[in-house]
Amino acid sequence: MQAQGKGVGSAAGNVLKLAAAAAVAGVLTAAIALPAVGGAGMTAKSGIDALHIGPEELDEPPLPEKTTLLDADGKPIAQFYYENRESVTLDKIAPIMREAIVAIEDFRFYKHGPLDIEGTARALVKNITTGGVTQGGSSITQQYVKQVLYNKAETEEEKAAAVAPTVGRKLNEIRYAIALEQKHSKDEILNRYLNIAYFGASAYGIEAASKRFFGKHASELTLAEAATLAGAVQDPNATDPNRGKSFRDRLIARRNVVLDRMDELDIITPAEAAEAKAKKLGYKDKPIPGGCEQSDFPYFCLYVRNEILHDTQFGKTQKAREQFLARGGLTIRTTIDRKMQKAAEKAVRKYVHPSDKPVASEALVEPGTGAIKAMAASRKFGTNRKKNEMSINVVADSLHGGGTGFQAGSTMKVFTLVTALKEGMKFGDGFSVGGTFAANSKFDFKDCKGNGVGEPTAVLHNAEGGGGFKSLQTGTWGSVNTFFLALERKVGLCDVIKTAKDLGIKRSDGQPLHEVQTFTLGANELDPVTLATAYAALGARGKFCAPMAITEIVDRFGKATSFKPKCKQVLEPEIADATSNILEGVFTRGTMTGVGGIGRDAAGKTGTGDVSRTVWFAGYTPDLAGAVSLGDPRGPVRYPLSGRVIGGRQYGSVFGASIPGPIWKETFLAALKDVPATDFVKPDMSRFGGCTQSCAPKPKKEHRPGRGDDDGHDRGPGPGDGPIDIYTPDGSPFGD
């Protein structure tokens, strides 16, 4: 009896539901019979009042569109997107595609109003009797409404509400649909629907889907292809061809359903339907365009991407900045120079192969603007370890997608040299030093908080002796460790650190600089962009310009925002001139003698870490600055460079002039080939010539160290390996 009673109650409930459904369907049918709503029919104001159905304006925010990166000449280099979409106008969509989508989704689309009365009424009856939405019955206009609401949703709750199986949501769709059809033509609504719809395989909109599925524009689709894409929109995840054979089989079956419907509606003939059904799926699986991994300039692309994601001027929150970049439909003009980029890539990969575990990386920066002209690395960017690809931006700091960087070695001695010149020392000033150095007490070196950081127990040494009197010139040319430790002690560690910071030096990992005794020897890990930018300030006569990658952003509406260099004079121009004059000698009388110069004014400094764990060269002209690093990203301590095969050549020892120096030289010869040479400004010899009280005991000839200098650089048997003149106390200029 209990079971029977339950059955009777259930049956009675269903009768009531059916009655209610019939009543509601009748009211709805009457309500939508208005000419402005359902097409032709009688007026039913009472029905509208009963259901409160009336037009409601739908906010249609711009669709997420791809962002395009351009080089300095306006040529595309990369794309970013949240959804792989390229919106197109209706005239750029094949007519057969329009017919296919209308046939399968809403064949009376051009005949009814904002909704299909018969379909909606039928669906509403079914939905009410089941207690939810189990049938669609939606017109293309309603489907477009749902897509807009879903795309606007920012939270998971809002997304769920946009597709919730409720009668309330369906009634809202109707209200929005009424307003839309008052605002837009049928063709415009169909166009918007085809641009917003998801087709599977990460393709949003008909143009992206056509390219992804078939490698062609939407205007070129054939009957079979159009039917395939029209069939995919119903349940794109269930027919996603990327997910395997069973999914592709379902897509073919769905395509054939579309073809049958087009045949039934006399859009195509039975013969045309049969011919299209006989065709294979033809899915091309075209790579999705965009993303830094597919860019020809992946490391620079990563730099730009992270520049936007970490700069609050592009959005107050991380999410806002991500949306700005990936959804904004922006055109971003950048600073990269294809000619200079090609020069850097060619030189880097000549000396270090993509298959090598050590990686060479190079950044080129323009003095006076900070514009990054090139970012190259020997290894390809990507996540395939079997192909030895790099998944971090080894050319930049961690803020721009990089890692921890490499110790910069003796390239850091330049900041001690600059500090000495700032504090009044002259070219001929110096010290008599030995082959080793040890602090007398920990207070020989003080950090910027006044703490003693000297290491009396640590005995630091030169690579090959190198004792005797060293001046600012000869100590720099020979890169004498003990001389620079003594010089750092004299001018003050904190002052050297402040000079380095003024010139933009910061650790690659974003941590505070290590303020230690060996700061001048390169105890901190840097990246090529940072070091090249610092040296560029010397080339710009003391004007530091922050690294710059973006020059202009044009939004989807054509509004352009320009970005100017952020520069500051951090050194007296005369200090920079004097520094450049000394660093010119590195090519002619110092550690780069065996490599040689580039036929125009150039200055630079080699750098080698302990036991050749990492090696560097940084150099500049008034027109371009560059820094090259070489190290093993698996860990320089565990994997030093000595005794390795690099670039197909066996090296016993590796120094700054062994690989980074030649890379820099070949890069600059090619990059500056058509750029008129600019000379350095000659130093004020009345200010910097000669010496004060710390000159050599008496003028004399001095022989340069042989192969290998005091920071461990292998100069090779260069043309200048004979006796050389040093500055004499009377101030006669060396090399003038």
Helicity, as a percent range: 25-40%
Q: What structural category do the secondary elements indicate?
A: alpha+beta
Largest sheet: 5 strands, mixed
* Percent of residues in β-strands: 5-15%
- Strand arrangement across the biggest beta sheet: 2-1-5-15-16
Give the count of helical stretches. 23
Euclidean distance between termini CA atoms: 116 Å
- Return the average pLDDT rounded to an integer: 85
* Cα gyration radius (Å): 36 Å
Low-confidence stretches: 1-50, 132-136, 701-736
How many distinct beta strands? 24
| Overall morphology | elongated
Describe the structure.
37% of the residues lie in helices and 12% in strands. The protein contains 23 helices and 24 strands. The strands form 9 sheets. Strands 2-1-5-15-16 form a 5-stranded mixed beta sheet. α3 (95-105) packs parallel to α10 (223-232) and α5 (140-152) packs antiparallel against α6. The longest helix has 30 residues, at 2-31. It starts with a helix and ends in a 12-residue tail after the last strand. Keywords: Carboxypeptidase, Cell shape, Cell wall biogenesis/degradation, Glycosyltransferase, Hydrolase, Multifunctional enzyme, Peptidoglycan synthesis, Protease, Transferase. GO terms for molecular function: penicillin binding; peptidoglycan glycosyltransferase activity; serine-type D-Ala-D-Ala carboxypeptidase activity. InterPro entries: Beta-lactam/transpept-like, Glyco_trans_51, Glycosyltr_51/Transpeptidase, Lysozyme-like_dom_sf, PBP_transglycosylase, PCN-bd_Tpept.
